[in-house]
Amino acid sequence: MERYKTFKDFYPYYLSEHDNKYTKLMHFIGTSIGLVFLINFFLSFNFLNLLFALLSGYAFAWVGHFFIEKNKPATFKYPLYSLIGDYKMYLEILQGKHKIF
């Protein structure tokens, strides 16, 4: 696998690892749940919400990768770029740039 030096170079690769709309849907569900826990954290400062935000986001995404897309999540090699890519793809789904239904 190529080592990406910029997020701009990485993002097309990230999207190629999410070809199946159901993988994108799993990411969308996990990120949505994770955002709820993140908001709850900032409202309560209960650190369990941070743990649940991470677990829900990664659990749904990894199910999508391992069982639907049948590939390894890019987060294993590119954790920061993958996190940024997840939120960028989430916003693009909200904007209608990616179909998940």
Give the overall shape, derived from the CA principal axes: globular
Tell me the strand percentage band. under 5%
Order of helices and strands: HHHH
Taking the alpha carbons of the first and last residues, their distance comes to 31 Å
Uncertain runs are none
Helix % is over 70%
Report the sheet with the most strands, covering strand number, pairing sense and barrel closure: none
Radius of gyration from CA coordinates: 14 Å
**Helix/strand structural class:** mainly alpha
Number of strands: 0
Would you mind describing this structure in some detail?
The protein is mostly helical. It is 71% helix and 0% strand. It contains 4 helices and no strands. The protein has helices spanning 7-16, 21-44, 48-69, 79-94. Helix 1 packs across helix 4. The longest helix is centred in the first third of the chain and has 24 residues, at 21-44.
What is the topological layout?
Blueprint: H1 7-16, H2 21-44, H3 48-69, H4 79-94
Helix pairs in contact: 1-4, 2-3, 2-4
Give keywords.
4 helices, mainly alpha, 101 residues
